[in-house]
Amino acid sequence: MSSVQSPRPWTLDEFFAWQERQSERYELVDGFPRRHRMMAGAGNRHDDIVVNIIGDLKAKLRGTPCRPFTADGSVKTGSDRIRRPDVGVDCGKREPRGHHAAIPVVVFEVLSPSTRSSDLLVKDAEYRKLPSLRHIVYVEQDVAEALHWWRRTGDEEWELTALAGLEAVVDLAAIEAALTLRDVYDGLDIAEPSSKLPPPGPR
């Protein structure tokens, strides 16, 4: 991610006021704007996976207090940090002119070679500190695999489930919804994992 030079750290209000005038998406890291990776141009596969997740969650959450959001929305991971997951679920009151999720409960990141380390190391550490977050899902692009971090309500301990194969289920218990990896990769020519493949992770 490239950065925008700023003489001092920005407040969230300053950042969002500036962001509204930009043609590209940015995140806020330690008070400084950083160009969001998606604006470099994601491929069709990445976009198709995001659309599949959003569409499935939208249908499953209809009539509930929760709703999915795209990377146009954001998650506040600190007083000077704003992140833009590929897909998220907000179960709080949505402010029409707000900029970040009120109560983020689920985030999805679709992994790519250029962002894998940042997603799995830097962002992951930030996400897991959020009190409201219950599910963090990292989805591979080229093989039917995902990593699912989850925790029970009232429990601060995170548990990790490695998912493999199109019939594997992402159980989003906190929002009473579930997606199979077949749903996630719908319409895509996706490889099934082999026993020789390691689980997703920094490579």
TrEMBL record:
Q: What domain of life does the UniProt record list for this protein's source?
A: Bacteria
Which keywords does this chain's UniProt record carry? Endonuclease, Hydrolase, Nuclease
The protein, known as: Uma2 family endonuclease
Species name: Antarcticirhabdus aurantiaca
Q: What is the lineage of its organism?
A: Bacteria, Pseudomonadati, Pseudomonadota, Alphaproteobacteria, Hyphomicrobiales
